[in-house]
């Protein structure tokens, strides 16, 4: 069950990142984050009301609140790092986020078997290669590296927090709703501050009404990914769930290949293959 839900997480996150990347080509990144998360919060609110999720309110929701604060910081740091580039360095480096939940799992006493340890090493190596690491070229700015590391630490922290935010299905819906409302509040405040400084809030054509379905998909796919990851982490070793969930760069690369006809570099194809091998080792270990 852990492997299934963790792989579902990587699929959903990979597609959400692909969709978000396309949307940010025409819209300000912060606007994409706020609008997509607002749609997700509205849908989750309806689900919470329909399922009576409010009855699950308790101290664990503080984990969801914290995840909602950390998430936008990580996302914006990641987008800024990508803008400063090069993507061939930023994308693989961001996969270091897996180190946070794996470290927490080991600290809590999880001890993967030899097969799983091998699977973790192979899968992480595959994910890094699938990002197409840039092995030569101009030096990377120190600020780009720091922003990427902040993003990686933030994403990994969200992994840990959302896994602790609930114990049941109804509680999970409520936790995800709280996280998304916090995301919107934090992102909205940042958007307002950006507008006050003269930053772009809307694209040149005004509010992107035509992009609402795509924005909704990105927001809901991200929510679903958080949910499947929480389930994976609650039903198996966090070390395994985190590594399998971190395979999303492979999905993003394959989506770009399928929808945009982007050619995979040899190093990316090799990384995807290694990631698959690592996944099989983890699933059978």
Structure, explained:
By secondary structure, this protein is mainly α. The chain has one domain (2-284). The chain is 76% helix and 0% strand. It is built from 12 helices and no strands. The chain is globular and about 55 Å long. This is Membrane protein. It holds the Pfam family EamA. Keywords: Membrane, Transmembrane, Transmembrane helix. Residues 3-130, 144-283 form the EamA domain.
Total count of helical runs of at least 4 residues: 12
Q: Strand count, sense and closure of the main sheet?
A: none
Cα Rg: 18 Å
Helix content: over 70%
Distance between the termini: 13 Å
Q: What value does the average pLDDT take?
A: 80
The H/E string reads: HHHHHHHHHHHH
In the residues, how many domains can be counted? 1
Strand content: under 5%
Shape from CA axes? globular
Please tally the β strands and state the result: 0
The chain-level structural class is: mainly alpha
Q: Which residue ranges are poorly predicted, with pLDDT under 50 across at least 5 consecutive positions?
A: none
Question: Topology of this structure?
Answer:
Elements: H1 2-23, H2 29-51, H3 61-84, H4 87-94, H5 99-107, H6 114-130, H7 142-164, H8 169-196, H9 212-234, H10 238-245, H11 248-260, H12 266-284
Transmembrane segments: 28-49, 61-82, 88-107, 114-132, 144-163, 207-225, 237-260, 266-284
InterPro entries: EamA_dom, EmrE-like
Family: Belongs to the EamA transporter family.
